Amino acid sequence: QVQLVESGGGLVQAGGSLRLSCAASRIFGVNVMGWYRRAPGKQRELVASITRVGTINYAGSVKGRFTISMDSAKRTVYLQMDSLRPEDTAVYYCNARTSDDYWGQGTQVTVSS
Question: Which of 2, 41, 68, 110 is the most exposed place for a label (fewest CB within 10 A)?
Answer without folding.
Answer: 41
